[in-house]
């Protein structure tokens, strides 16, 4: 812990432990909104394969352009020989394992399996290096990032039991009883596959421990997103994974390529715990708690969650996930009435019939199935028309500030003013919604509105994304161009 503490002190941070949360990261000086707190490269990472980011990606930079397959394993792709070279140290060992995976089995190489394989291999590599140094009699001569190499041999079973750096909540309540049985069976199957890929001798498989390791991976890995928050991969960031969760975070985790960057989103006084959100914060307390319990196995007691059941919390949940008033003009929120026949508007007292809600809910469900079918078939125009229908239906059904409506609109790339009510001032999604609105308004010729939206985007994103990244520089130049165009349009007539 001493070496870690020393390294963190230089960054005005410190680590301590707490019986409820395990390790916590604290500030040792004040941080201003937008100020950089810490950045870290991944210990291991893999590109994702999912609906949002379908298709293949470069193993190093996640680009999907000009990809070429590794000619040896035929599993991993690179966009350039530059990226291939940067990844070679790791891929050299992984390639040997992957090339032995035969036929049909290749399709089981999911990102989680590959992340676990890479983690085992990276530890093995470092263990070997450390061992060689010791044998050469030169002592270790290495500092903090490698101290954990002195841990036992990286057999699969003790993958996470090494000291300090990767001591993933080792001493806290990671109770296996919290993981449901189906998940345990899945972890067991995944563990067998990892063992098969590694083909390490005498690695005894203890399903319970391996399941635990997969569960720890799920708790500690971070989704790597681009500047527009589109997911591209998953990575393990040993120091950043010390940061705990809050549904009202004081910091945000963003990525510059594969580099993870934590920034303050509000003033953080010296001696405060650095907190990020692990989940989508625009959800009711019940939804957030469920997501945190399922993936991270803890019950959140942040200042937002402890309000569960209080009037403010009930109102917030009814707005975020509830229905709209029957009177379209009224923005009141609805609560179930005592006899179960429907929902009562808490502002105007109108009753909304249960059957009316049921009918629209069924229509939304049918239309959603159609929309996602169109989307996966690449029929984008029909998908877009279907999402517009869903939006119309949801406007009749859901509260105007509901998360469902927001997600539909997000899919349609439309931002609306109601969005402001859901996110705190400096949430990256808010900035990105302004950015999308600005681009759309500009495209539709409404340059003045575009300038307003892009300015708001800049104000929010400079806090969450910093100002020096290529994405932000592009935003700055778009804003400048829109400004120039708007002033040109506004100039007096006699200037023609
Ligand atoms: C990425 S780790 C964070 C660092 C962790 N505290 C440690 O000691 O390594 C995530 C785990 O930390 C714990 N954790 C994070 N935020 C928490 C919170 N607000 N309350 C309780 N436990 C929390 C949970 O066990 C979760 O699965």
From TrEMBL:
Pfam families, per the entry: SET, zf-MYND
One example GO MF annotation: methyltransferase activity
Transmembrane parts of this sequence: none
Keyword Zinc: yes
Chain ranges of the SET domain: 11-279
UniProt entry keywords in alphabetical sequence: Metal-binding, Methyltransferase, Transferase, Zinc, Zinc-finger
Record-linked Gene3D superfamilies: 1.10.220.160, 6.10.140.2220, SET domain, Tetratricopeptide repeat domain
Entry's Gene Ontology cellular component terms: nucleus
Domain (MYND-type) ranges: 58-95
Source superkingdom: Eukaryota
GO biological process: methylation
Name of the protein: Histone-lysine N-methyltransferase ASHR1-like
Species of origin: Dorcoceras hygrometricum
